[in-house]
User: Fold these one by one.
Assistant:
Number 1:
Amino acid sequence: MTTVQQSPPTPAATGIRPKVVARTGLYALLAANVAAVTYFAADAGFGSNALIVLARFAGLYGALFMAFQLLLVARLPWLDRRIGMDRLTNWHRWTGFGLLWTLVGHVVFIAFGYADLAGTMDPVNQLVNLAETAEGVLRAVVALVLILVIGGASARWARRRLAYETWHFIHLYTYVAVVLAFTHQVAIGTTFTASGAATAYWYGVWGVALGSVVLGRFVLPLWRNWRHQLRVSEVVPESDNVVSVHITGRDLDKMPAQAGQFFLWRFLTRDRWWQANPFSLSAAPDGLRLRLTAKAAGDGSAGLRHIKPGTRVFAEGPYGAFTALHRTRTDALLIAGGVGVTPIRALMEDLTGHAIVVYRVRDERDAVLYDELRDLAHAKGAELHLVTGPPVPDRLAPRELAALVPDIAERDVFLCGPPPMMNAVLGTLRELDVPKPQIHFERFSLAG
């Protein structure tokens, strides 16, 4: 353990937390659009068949959910820095289930409603007849089938069995479903054509949603990479299975990256250009270079040590809300597990106030970047604890962690490590009554 003189404290963050502002803004945006959709649907008239009225509302809310889903995964910097890609992705997933059920309800109510109007008991035949005779209905059926396939691929049991590349390829069909659903709405949507205001509203909804995706996922990455011209400057082995990659470029002092964030990195070699891997910055950006540090856990990360200096790099980002922006207290506790130390090491440079760093590894040989942490702790007046040993017994159980950090409930806690370790530590923090707003973590496995 390294313990040195405490540095002068800095004031704690004040005001409304950025995460609360962004989350409240998203809820308010969704609620306002639900109200607008309801108003325009009512203004268009309800009709005499209750099932068809229900179908109309289900379809409209489904279209709104689809647009909202696009906004959640557009990777807009303002939202991402305040909420985090992992949480936005999780909200996207749950919104997707809402979309799935509203669209299924739309089709079921339409089929039974038109069967009721025709005086038959054959809703399937009515749906087939609509697909053959009504403009845009066949496109809507194809869109629903695509949504069902995508929803099935996103179910937890399927997601665990699919390679990321396969899952991502299936999800690309979401954009096909969006186009088909929109053309269906334009062709026969009663609410869409009921008034000029309704038509303008829906064009605005889809324009903002698709425009956000184009801006966040295409325009910004292309602009930043053209501006900064990133290249590998050095590849440094940190241990037998851990390597650091140093990257330089133009005007890096103007890149809006913060300690704790990550990029999706593409190294433009013949055999790697198509792979995008999420790696955190392992040093705070200094305006001259960026550094990532990765453990060999697959073909993508294992191949990093063979990259040649001068290799061009295409980086998407920076992403993530695991930054000092979310500080609520003067002092901090940083808990790292294994190679999860990389964003913690970067954050340590950026944080002010007194910091305690707890680094959990199985063996001292696994303590990547430990020498750097020790030097930083000495320079910043921080405490550094290296906790070693097998996962059981838990070295970071409530009693053990409280002994290391007696004032833990008065500190911000930044946590990064393997999922089992993070889950265990989050349970420990709950038992120690650490307020939830003071706990900061990001599940980087969702970054892709």
Number 2:
Amino acid sequence: MYRARTDSWYLERIVFVIAGVVVLGGTILGIVHHPYWFALPILAGLNMLIFAFTGFCPAAIVLYKLGARPMCGRPEA
């Protein structure tokens, strides 16, 4: 079983938090306010697919420039 490290807030973990908030928030707003809010989880899903196939993630670029550092590619400490 794979379990990710949770001892620090590295870039990949922050991206997952943002994606989760967008998906849950858009779904809840779509249910209680207006169906147009369902566009948020759809766009988040498309962004995740684009990242899976190309490695390009706009949120990761912004977070990296703000100082978040990636865990992937680091040697184990």
Number 3:
Amino acid sequence: MAKEYLLVDGYNIIFAWEDLRDLADDNLEAARVKLADILCNYQGFKKNEVILVFDGHKFRGNPGSIYHYNNIDIVYTKEAISADQFIETVVQQMGRSYNIRVATSDALEQVIILGKGATRVTARELKAEIRAVEKSIEETYKKKVSNKRNSLIDNLSDEMAELLEKMRLDDSK
């Protein structure tokens, strides 16, 4: 099975999700970090490669940058290259060799990436996937915690547990 990549059009998702859009109205950087953190949790559960792409094309002299953030990669495109163009280039180069999904609600972008071999995920679909992953993580955690007793005696050395048990039995007489 081919390795799976998820390319996320960062600003498109931020402004499509109400909670992130509201946060971006106050602090765009905080919205970018929150989206990155959400995608890190998602990636940790799904074990796919996640690349979060932000437009940097409107900033004169911007050389662009790519850096690793926890378990995902974040790309800020360089001057004159939009996130859409960057995503299209990646899909063109890798589209048939890998399973590539692109998260964007840009209708034109969806048509272009479909033609190059990737599949599309709308902002709404991505949010639903993330909610399902969060629910699975929560259920897994609850099962793990509920199956584990946490009594005092379970956390003592054998010697100390034996001593306390002896004291308990002596007191019951």
Number 4:
Amino acid sequence: MNEPGWQDPIMVTLGTFVFALPWLLPTTFGDPMEGDTTAWAFLLTGLATGLVAVAGIVLPGKWEAIVEFALGIWFMALPWVAKPSTEPTAATWAAVVVGGVMAVLSGVSAFSARGRRPKKE
């Protein structure tokens, strides 16, 4: 049986951080309760990342690393998808940096040679 990856607790922490960003950077975001698209996108992405990481701890497998990798790439693109702007803000930098860390950590686990079976000849 597979064991949980070393990156799973880190991904839970990053998901919690992303979820909390609208409240940690209140001047950058609008109020999520008033319908700010970017704040809601950060909240939902953080929640999804945390839930996938917890699921990876409970039911370990390569699937969760691949989903976390996709969430990291999504999070890096999120500021331009949710609310396109030409001027980078603190939220933009946070999304790019945290999304990059998420993609690298999960990508190492998802696409490393560990866990791949050698070809039978």
